[in-house]
């Protein structure tokens, strides 16, 4: 399942953007970890709204599942935030789908769902990469991707990154990737990622989990080395209620 749509944005006509504000956020299907069984999508929307990003990579998104009240969370967030969206299903769940999504202030096209391999542990939960072409003000275009790698098996994560790197090598547009990589900066998977991408943080990555007392950085924003971006700022937002991950926000300059 892949779903896309627009919540009312029209194509921008202003001059070229000089900078892009990008967010990565694992939203834990909008369940605040302190409230078992509660779904509070407006809390997630509020966190995103406060940061005013141009692009958002979401993970752990429910679409029409019983546990989340049969709501299309990607579409609902897009409507609340007046953004375009694309949802990519990773697995069937609870009568609906569960996966990753993209939100964008600007029009999306050429949406794509890439299945990620899991040869080392085939019983693991299926993982995907969602990508879309984003048409920016002035007509400039980039590729944006959201992903969520295997949580259990390091060899799977390495293979999944290698697949993403192969996809990136064929991409002609500047390519920004963000997501929950479930691995640390010094891991084999992230070392492999760094061969093709420049992360917005390097050795000084602030931790993003666990949300109450964060100790590990596993959520990253990156761009292909040929993209021509420079990092203006990078921060982890200390928002501890809405999800079990802290969101990451970076500003990139063309």
From TrEMBL:
* Listed transmembrane segments: none
**Residue limits of the Endonuclease/exonuclease/phosphatase domain?**
23-245
GO biological process terms on file: GPI anchor biosynthetic process
What is the organism of origin for this protein?
A: Pontibacter flavimaris
Q: One MF term in GO for this entry?
A: catalytic activity
Alphabetical GO CC annotations of the entry are:
membrane
Q: What is this protein called?
A: Endonuclease/exonuclease/phosphatase domain-containing protein
Extract the PANTHER family matched here: CALCOFLUOR WHITE HYPERSENSITIVE PROTEIN PRECURSOR, ENDONUCLEASE_EXONUCLEASE_PHOSPHATASE DOMAIN-CONTAINING PROTEIN
User: Which InterPro entries does this UniProt record tie to the protein?
Assistant: Endo/exonu/phosph_ase_sf (IPR036691), Endo/exonuclease/phosphatase (IPR005135), GPI-anchor_lipid_remodeler (IPR051916)
Q: Which Pfam families match?
A: Exo_endo_phos (PF03372)
Which portions of this protein are annotated as coiled-coil regions? none
Origin: domain of life? Bacteria
